[in-house]
Specification:
It is built from one helix and seven strands. With about 110 residues, it is mainly beta. The protein has one domain (about 5-95): Sandwich (Tumour Suppressor Smad4). It has a three-stranded antiparallel β-sheet with strand order 1-2-3, with no helix packed on it. It has a two-stranded antiparallel ribbon with strand order 4-7. A two-stranded antiparallel sheet has the order 5-6.
Length: about 110
C-alpha cells in the first residue's frame, strides 16, 4: 500500500468505524477496519468533529475507509500505540490480526 500523509488514524476490529458501535458482523473477521484523515486545517477539523458522532465524517474528501489484514505504521517522531487503553508499542509498528487466536467464554444470551 502506498504511504499516505495522514494526520489521524483509527484502527478497529468488529467496530463500526462510522459510529463507534460494536458490530456483530462476521464478514470482516481477520481484518482491521481503518479510517484515516489526511491533512486538514485545525478549524476544518474541529468544524467536522460533530460529523463523527453521526457517521457522516467518512463522506469528507480527506477521509479514507478501508479494511486490511496487516498494517505498517510509522511517524516522523516517536508515537505510542495503544489498544483498549494498554500501551502496546511505539512506532514504527507492524500489526496483524490472528483470526480465532483467542478463545472467549461468554454467558448465554437471555432466553437461550
Amino acid at each position: 500500500m502506498a504511504r499516505d500523509n495522514i494526520e489521524m488514524a483509527d484502527v478497529a476490529d468488529s467496530v463500526d468505524v462510522r459510529t463507534g458501535d460494536i458490530t456483530d458482523e462476521l464478514d470482516n473477521l481477520g481484518e482491521f477496519d481503518v479510517v484515516t484523515i489526511g491533512k486538514v486545517g485545525k478549524l476544518r477539523f474541529l468544524s467536522n468533529l460533530p460529523k463523527v458522532f453521526k457517521g457522516t465524517h467518512v463522506e469528507e474528501d480527506e477521509v479514507r475507509v478501508f479494511r486490511t489484514a496487516r498494517l505498517e505504521l510509522s511517524a516522523s517522531r516517536p508515537f505510542p500505540v495503544y489498544a483498549d487503553g494498554e500501551h502496546l508499542s511505539d512506532l514504527p509498528a507492524s500489526l496483524r490480526i490472528l483470526p480465532q487466536a483467542l478463545r472467549v467464554i461468554v454467558p448465554a444470551r437471555a432466553g437461550e
